[in-house]
Design brief:
27% of the residues lie in helices and 21% in strands. By secondary structure, the protein is of the alpha/beta class. The chain has one domain: Glutaredoxin, CATH 3.40.30. The strands form three sheets. The chain has a five-stranded mixed β-sheet. It has a two-stranded antiparallel sheet with strand order 1-2. It has a two-stranded antiparallel ribbon with strand order 6-7. Strand 1 and strand 2 form a beta hairpin.
């Protein structure tokens, strides 16, 4: 069983993955002005992921105007990641792939086993990560985190934009950092 071991205001795991179209994404290199928004999606087989990433693609410029670098990543292969980028007409959104599943676990992501072909007729990988959304501060510490065990009920990107605006305006600290006995 895995649950997130990430603690707000503490360092997040490393993230270094190849990008569709070439190059690599390394969390914190270069450091974002305000935050990195790291969106882990299930993969090409997930129609809900495609819809979610279309919304993120539309809002990337809004995040960027706030000093937020955006990446969407999965454990998909390069070919499947390219197919997802094509499917969502990604132009602004960077799509990472080949996320190692041990790294996904470090981020607190749940791992699922294939159930064959989806309703769209796309084969699920043998193992793949479930969704997660993280906002990481420029120093590499966790500001916000959300993980799901299923593709449903993910955080709204419009709501995250509002939260970032509030956090910037009020210099609001990351919360949930208490690890003592309760």
């Amino acid at each position: 069983m895995t649950t997130t071991g990430l603690i707000p205001r503490a360092a997040t795991p490393a993230l270094h993955i190849p990008l569709v179209g070439g190059g690599t994404y390394t969390l914190g290199a270069p450091a974002a002005t305000r935050f990195d928004l790291v969106v882990f999606y299930r993969g090409l087989h997930c129609p809900i992921c495609a819809k979610y990433l279309i919304e993120l693609e539309r809002l990337v410029p809004e995040f960027e105007t706030r000093g937020v670098q955006v990446i969407a990543a999965s454990s998909d292969t390069a070919d499947r990641a390219q197919a997802m980028a094509d499917k969502i007409s990604a132009k602004a959104l960077r799509i990472g792939y080949d996320l190692p599943l041990p790294n996904a676990r470090e981020w607190g992501l749940y791992i699922s086993a294939s159930r064959g072909k989806t309703s769209l007729g796309v084969e699920e990988p043998a193992l793949f990560n479930e969704p997660g959304v993280f906002i990481v501060s420029p120093d590499g510490s966790l500001y916000y985190g959300s993980t799901q065990t299923m593709p449903f009920a993910r955080p709204s990107f419009a709501d995250l934009l509002g939260a970032i605006d509030f956090a910037i305006a009020k210099d609001y600290p990351a919360r949930g950092e208490f690890t003592g006995a309760v």
